[in-house]
Protein 1
Amino acid sequence: MREYKSFKEIDRDLKLLKLQKEIDKERILLNYNQTKESLSPKRLLKSAAGSIFKNALILKGATKVLGFIGDKWK
């Protein structure tokens, strides 16, 4: 526990704590808004569509490679 030697030190620390509290509050609000935006139906659909498209491309490429390798073993 800290020992203070003057009211000036106490006031300084109280101001710092108040500022830190405001910063933390703004961070929480920012994180909340970012989370809310990332979970919006539009964003979720866009993300899902992108994942499906990406997986389809990977599957198509893998199928071609595996088909090519399979043809060499015949």
Protein 2
Amino acid sequence: MSVSDLSVSEPFYTKLFGTGPAMTLSDGPFQRRVFALSDGQLFGLTQHEAVRSGDRFDPSRVGLDHVGFGCSDPDAVAAWRDHLDAAGIEHSGIVEADYGLALSVKDPDGNALEFFMLAG
């Protein structure tokens, strides 16, 4: 995930995931922090040297719409809601739709994240 300022995004994601980065990389024209998530997935944040000033995420542009994290059941979605509340991170609340349950969050750059459980 490209971010504009790691000094702002890293603390947000540390709060979100409840753990700090497992790796720091700086072997290119960028700085990167990689989080090792509890399910074995890796999630990376990258601040490129050539950041466009004032640029913000927009899901209507070609590219990323949002990042979704699957939850196994309604209790797992509720656990994320409770964690976000405890961490002081604003969110959408749990939304019920015909496809399942969704809980949405935006990071400091406006990047959209969703914790969801598919119906059925």
Protein 3
Amino acid sequence: MDTESLVETLKTAGLSPYQADAYVALLDLGTAPATDVADASDVPAPRIYDVLRSLEDRGYIETFEQASLRARAHSPSTVLEDLTERADRLERAAQEVEKRWEQPELEAGDASIVTRFQTVISRAKSFIASASHQVLLSTTIENFEQLRPALQDAMDRGVSVRVSVHTSDEAVSLDADRFAGLCTEVHHRPLPAPFVALADRRRACFAHHPDSYDRYGVLVNDRTHTYVFYWYFLTCLWEPWERVYQARDDGYPIEYFDVRHLVRDLRDVDWEDDPVRLRVEGYDTNTGEECHLEGTITDVRVPFDAEAATGFELAGQVTVDLDVDGEHVSVGGWGAIIEDVEGTRLTVVK
């Protein structure tokens, strides 16, 4: 670094122009009379004494009398400490600027449009980190790896994690071991797809596939808008595609993230003659408070012939009735209003 650049940098670090100029001159001179420092710098001779004393007050130099006022630079430890502290503050400021630019704060009910995919990934990480019961994710393998630590932490907290991995080649084979400890269940969609991340039925991230003409992302902190992304995930990115990994073995307990999946599977068991116990995690629709309960299934109510229904013909109102210690409790799916409980995690524990 040349002298001019060093002087400019010291000015940026908080020294006045005269202080920076005099200090750099003194570094080159070693020990010198005040008048020599003035001659070697751009500091006017009448000002040099005040400038040197101000540098001494900062701990950068020391002055002493020897026929005339002389000065010498201290060990640079104080200067280095000041520069390091200033550099740290600048780095933190740069990080905060980037954070505020990339990650606009989302208040409840907000939706934001962003232009950088990395912003979507960063927000997905934070949504997954704050999830308490459910994460649904549509992603490439590459982006899955970026989210690996967040997904592992979520699983360790007992969060249900369902992932739809999309690839551009149908021949791609996914190693099930890759997902152990990171996911509850994985489906494989051998077609390009958007990136989608849903957390706790309230927060959503969406970004077009990188090859798409439209390149933008959507961040949502709102149950109603997230519900739209949920149905897109369910019908286009999850339901039609092959399951390639499941954390549980065959048998009980069996966990469901949608009451419709539960009702569809109940057609295959004789639940009326062979009682089925269901553990429910969800929200009380009257109070909005979280609730946990367990009971025996007593009825399944759908507005059509449930025996004949396949796939998502179950898209209408679906209710499962339980006997919970002699009390009737009705359980619905996402957005349940007329039922007693909106079920977020349904586990057959028979």
Protein 4
Amino acid sequence: MSDNDVSYTIEEVASLLKVSKLTVYDLIKKNELPSYRVGRQMRVDMKDLEEYKNRKKTGGSIRVPVSKQSIPEIQPKSFVISGQDLALDLLAKQLEKGETELRPLRVYSGSLNSLISMYNNQCDLVSLHLFDGDTGTYNIPYVKKILTGFPFIVINFLSRWAGLYVKNGNPKNIKGWADLNREDVKIINRERGSGARILLDEQLRVHGIKSSEVNGYYREETSHLTIASAIAGEKADIGIGIEKAAKIVGVEFIPLIKERYDLVLIKREENKDIIQQIKDILSSGEMKKDIHLMGDYDITETGKVMYETF
């Protein structure tokens, strides 16, 4: 195989450049690093990566030089969607089929980390499920604080049950948040910046439990599925996550809170059409049917504008 035939995944490019995946997506979004899609995965050719590195070394232009013969008449606009729920793939698919020429790029980052990335102009749409213990509400308090100074819109995507994963049969008779600091109970946590981690930390604060009192607080996994799998593998007694992952893995689930899973976009002149397209997609019978068929999702408010600044 020649060097011209070698390509990298986004994860491999991030590792080679020693940067985050979001930084790589930002380079692609700005057309500084050419990429293409193979199925659901984005790829970058070795030669394009080397050309990018050489341009940076020589201080040359970081824009990708392209000939007229190499570009189509309409260039798809890269559109970075940050979030982990599988239903976001349905939205990305619908956006790609829409009238607005878009190339959706998926970043599987946690809610708080995604929102901070949006503030830093590294993604175009973020999905959130961030619980605020002071108000007992989701998302809006965080968006107001982090996107201060930006006009934004928050649209409901779906709602779902969050709670605790426990071993089948619930042998330790775990009932809720108050059991988290029991000496005979060990938890496994989500990574910092994820919505599930925020939910846990807020519930600990509300219930007056110190993180140092929680056995296993610093042991982390990076998705609902890996948390549920850790419980199934008897690596811990409690995990925090959503109902769907419990059913996929086959562990018992204790529902504790109905969380709202919203989409956030910064309002700019250039993305008015995209925002309207997303509203239309979420309000369509086709999208609601597709989400409903995935199971364990409440679509009562799907497409509803929950908050908007002007």
